[in-house]
Amino acid sequence: MPTATAAAVHEHVRAFNARDLDALMRGFTEDAVWITGTTTVRGRAALTELFAAAMAELLPTLTVRTLLADRDRAACQLVETLTVAGEQRVCSIAGFYELRDGRIASAKIYREGSADV
């Protein structure tokens, strides 16, 4: 049976793939921190801009391969399919999430090779 933390990560991925920005942002705390490559984004307003741009420009899709969750932390292996300069790329991703009150408070995302597109 999935934990509440695992369910929150799966909902994050579902909302992201559905391009449902409102549902995606409901899954973050107001002060959430998202770290990817050399980029750190803080707060829901900045995260909204980040994800809106990704959804419009890169057209990414995530697939959860493995997910380990314990209390308020989760680690998962994902596969990301995205389009960069008209070319489709498939990348392995490791994601590490910390939740507070059922919402993502921080995440560190490592893309195969580099988290920078």
Give a quick summary of the entry.
This protein has 117 residues and is α+β, with helices and mostly antiparallel strands. The chain has 3 helices and 6 strands, in the order ααββαββββ.
The largest β sheet comes out as:
6 strands, mixed
Helix content: 25-40%
Topology, number of strands:
6
> So what's the overall shape?
globular
Q: What is the structural class?
A: alpha+beta
pLDDT averaged residue by residue? 91
Number of helices: 3
Strand-residue fraction? over 45%
Secondary-structure element pattern, one letter each: HHEEHEEEE
The rounded distance between the terminal residues' Cα atoms is 35 Å
Global Rg = 13 Å
Strand order of the largest sheet: 2-1-6-5-4-3
Uncertain regions spanning at least 5 consecutive residues: none
Can you walk through the features of this model?
With 117 residues, the protein is an alpha+beta fold. The protein contains three helices and six strands. The chain has a six-stranded mixed β-sheet. A hairpin with a 2-residue loop joins strand 4 and strand 5. The longest helix has 14 residues. It is globular, with a radius of gyration of 13 Å. The termini are far apart.
Topology:
Blueprint: H1 4-17, H2 21-26, E1 28-36, E2 39-42, H3 44-57, E3 61-70, E4 73-84, E5 87-100, E6 103-111
Parallel strand pairs: 1-6
Antiparallel strand pairs: 1-2, 3-4, 4-5, 5-6
Which descriptors would you attach to this protein?
single chain, about 120 residues
